[in-house]
């Protein structure tokens, strides 16, 4: 643990905990992301004004509640998502969520780098490969400094995105006759409300499962709940509103593209860069923690390696891997559900990580992930919610059945 300022292999001590404002900025930096704006643009053209607001608020409230559970657990224990998974999945069983979470975050990092380079190339004519290398390396270098760098970057990025993006959206709404004109726009491609709700929840439930990686630095669990609710209920809702307003007014969901259409080229590049930089650094930071759980190597070195891989593969990932990443992400919500279920059932075990005893592999959790994925795909309702509940409920049923012998030994000890 010496020199591991990311505390990738143990709990964050109270002396290293951070304040509410700093961590709120970090989490807002995570949720301020172009993909949420794109989904907002899709909902804005598929729902009426009232249905859009209802879907966004209900969906992000659900996201906020889910991530608040994980944030509370992270702050209570000081443990990352991957170390928390050892309690439910086992010491080596936790490699499954670590590889799944870590691998998808590296993939999304590469996609994010390309999402910056391609529109900037179109706007300014700079070679795409040069933009990818420069942007990827800058993002990779900053993550080396851990949570401190994320706090500084987010403190700059979040206000800039909110102010510049907010100004652009206000201008865009004015161009279509203000709020009355916006409300009068009828859906071009109507979508079902349940589908819209699934899109909102699904937009960030995968990254939201990693909430503990960041708010484990919180001083108090109740503050961690506040931080995550602000980030997902307010921050993610704001991105959806940006996307819907921009899409309705200009046909472009990404606020940076709206700004380019408005002639605000430099502010657009700043917003796009900061938007992706904060989310990408959070993804890279979380990926390092995941692979650290598998290898035992401090996460900052692994994050750097992951950043180089993601940068080199950025265009390939962007062109070929987005569908596969989306598929992999469907397996992530049950992991969060299982972690929450185990903490609520066996909270006493989490008080002393250093002396905790783990199964090598807990098959109840492994099977639970499979059940959660199946519940998401085959049961009616909102896919991500079904996946979380399916994983949690099946784990609570299977765990005492599959680990009966171990529990009997402990009871007789």
TrEMBL record:
GO cellular component terms, alphabetically, are: plasma membrane
Q: Which GO terms describe its biological process?
A: cytosine metabolic process
Its keywords, alphabetically, are: Cell inner membrane, Cell membrane, Cytosine metabolism, Membrane, Transmembrane, Transmembrane helix, Transport
According to the UniProt entry, its GO molecular function terms are:
cytosine transmembrane transporter activity
Which parts form a coiled-coil structure per UniProt? none
The UniProt entry lists membrane topology as: Multi-pass membrane protein
Write out the annotated subcellular location.
Cell inner membrane
Is Transmembrane helix one of the keywords?
yes
State the similarity comment: Belongs to the purine-cytosine permease (2.A.39) family.
Briefly state the protein's biological role: Required for cytosine transport into the cell.
PANTHER family recorded: CYTOSINE PERMEASE (PTHR30569:SF0), CYTOSINE TRANSPORTER CODB (PTHR30569)
Question: What is the protein's given name?
Answer: Cytosine permease
Q: Which organism is it from?
A: Photobacterium jeanii
